[in-house]
Design goal:
By secondary structure, the chain is an alpha+beta fold. The protein has two domains: 276 residues, Endonuclease, Chain A (2-Layer Sandwich); 214 residues, Endonuclease Chain A (Endonuclease, Chain A). The protein contains 20 helices and 19 strands. It has a nine-stranded mixed beta sheet, with helices on both faces. An eight-stranded mixed beta sheet has the order 11-18-17-16-12-13-14-19, sandwiched between helices. Strands 7-15 form a two-stranded parallel sheet. Helix 15 packs across helix 20.
């Protein structure tokens, strides 16, 4: 889940085997060629292209997105800056932590900024990792979880409701300042198609070139913000500080966990074999474009408007949508339009713009409170002439998403949408962290990229249109919705949530 609750699931042994196999990708002792050298050698023309434009590659599959992060982490030689909303202590989260520690041990400066709301790492684990001289961990807006007692949490919630709801929803990973990834994925199993019970259909974008400088500037703005607090400052009680022996032991445990070769899945062995060929192909497949990286300031806005107020990301997306001439295609896991949103879309329809929105159904959603907000707006959206498609929990597309892991596919985990993407007039695309809801519009800081490119527009349109095919989604109309596909208990939950006045924080 992406907003109100943390879904930190532990997966059964088969999933552990697959994830442990991917660990080998993370920590295999290949001689890491510096990232810039590799780019220059693999794509001689890229240096010239990067001087003016940004390479863009859309990461559709979880495996692809995971391998991309792993390879870039392995080849970084100077710096890795990581910013996430959720970082779980499941297999993927643990393996990512191990890889970052490995990078730090070879001299890379690693900075990690994580929002306080969803982090589930133990305090001692955070201190052990940050004890390395090249690892620096900061917690954004620490008023609910890290170093906060139950009574302090209740007090903070009662005395400053906006502050506890104002979260850093950004998701960026920046490598040596020249390559970056942003999009919907957090650092947890379910965002990379590796959970045996529940996975997210998500989307990231890999960037190479000038737009990454803008990402770095935004990261720096957050890193130095008073809202980003060093973990040692939060947990600085001397009784908690780890000893040198504890630090060494924890490092050994992480490396042993990630390097165990006994559990490699055959399918992942093949992926490892292919990895040296994979990235040159990816580089050649990049589309070189003018890319605008959009972001919010720390805190989103001044806070003078309470739970409202908007932000820079909100303003830019409204401008982009308002400029549509023929079509708007949107994919958002949560669909609760803030004030003025329905009216804007309705005005577009009235002037002939076709609007289609792909979102979760009650059967697929991980967030019933958020669905209740959509539930209350659904009829009005349909009456405004907007076409709605609700994702199925067992879409036909899952076989393609899990094609390398047939045993996982056989267990048929639930799939839900988590991608936040948009195509305007078939040529302007947005991929990022922004959900179509009041929380993203007014409270959470968000990031993403806006790109005008007919080629990328075609790619993203094809992907979303595939998701709304009948085998993957129900088309909801005035006369039909798929709410009856769920249990009576979940529908009762929906009815109760729909009564509550939660709209501003959904």
């Amino acid at each position: 889940m992406d907003q109100l609750f943390c879904l930190s699931r532990r997966i059964p042994k088969a999933g552990v085997l697959a994830s442990l196999a991917l660990a080998w990708i993370f920590s295999t002792a290949l001689a890491a060629q510096p990232l810039q050298e590799w780019v220059d050698a693999s794509c001689p023309e890229c240096a010239g292209l990067m001087a003016a434009k940004t390479g863009v590659y859309i990461l559709e599959k979880g495996e692809e997105a995971l391998i991309g992060r792993a390879w870039l982490t392995q080849h970084a030689t100077q710096s890795i800056d990581i910013q996430y909303f959720i970082w779980s202590t499941d297999n993927i989260g643990t393996l990512a932590a191990e890889q970052l520690l490995l990078a730090a041990e070879r001299g890379v400066v690693v900075r990690v900024l994580v929002d306080d709301l969803m982090i589930d790492a133990e305090d001692q684990t955070l201190l052990l990792l940050s004890a390395h001289p090249n690892v620096h961990i900061r917690i954004y807006n620490p008023n609910l979880s890290v170093g906060v007692s139950l009574w302090d949490r209740l007090f903070n919630s009662a005395t400053d409701f906006r502050a506890v709801n104002q979260r850093m929803h950004d998701k960026t990973a920046i490598f040596d300042g020249i390559a970056g990834i942003t999009g919907g994925r957090n650092m947890a199993d379910e965002y990379f198609d590796f959970d045996h019970e529940y996975n997210f259909r998500d989307r990231d974008v890999l960037l190479l070139g000038p737009a990454v400088l803008n990402m770095s500037e935004n990261f720096e703005e957050f890193w130095v913000s008073p809202l980003a607090v060093p973990v040692e400052q939060i947990l600085g009680d001397s009784s908690r500080l780890p000893t040198d022996e504890e630090i060494r032991q924890r490092a050994q445990e992480l490396h042993a966990y990630a390097e165990d070769p006994m559990n490699f899945e055959p399918e992942v062995r093949q992926a490892i074999t292919d990895i040296s060929r994979y990235f040159p192909k990816l580089l050649r497949a990049m589309s070189w474009e003018e890319v605008e990286f959009i972001s919010d300031i720390p805190g989103k806005n001044s806070g003078e408007s309470g739970l409202s107020g908007g932000g820079e990301s909100t303003r830019r997306l409204i401008e982009a949508i308002a400029g549509a001439r023929t079509s708007v295609l949107i994919q958002s896991p949560y669909l609760i339009l803030p004030d003025g949103g329905i009216e804007l879309l309705e005005s577009l329809v009235e002037r002939g713009v076709r609007i289609r929105i792909s979102t979760n159904s009650l059967a697929s959603t991980d967030n019933v409170p958020a669905f209740s907000g959509y539930y209350k707006q659904r009829s009005r959206l349909l009456e405004a002439g907007i076409e709605l498609f609700e994702f199925k929990p067992d879409p036909g597309i899952q076989a393609q998403l899990l094609e390398r892991y047939p045993r996982l596919a056989e267990e048929r985990p639930i799939f839900a949408l988590h991608a936040k993407s948009m195509v305007i007039d078939g040529k302007v695309i947005f991929i990022g962290t922004f959900n179509l809801d009041p929380r993203s519009a007014n409270l959470n800081t968000e990031v993403g990229v806006l790109v005008e490119s007919p080629e990328l527009g075609r790619q993203l349109t094809d992907s979303i249109e595939r998701d709304i095919l009948p085998e993957n989604s129900w088309q909801t109309t005035v006369d039909f919705n798929p709410d009856s596909e769920v249990s009576m208990g979940k529908r009762l939950h929906l009815m109760l949530d729909a009564i509550l006045p939660m709209q501003p924080i959904l």
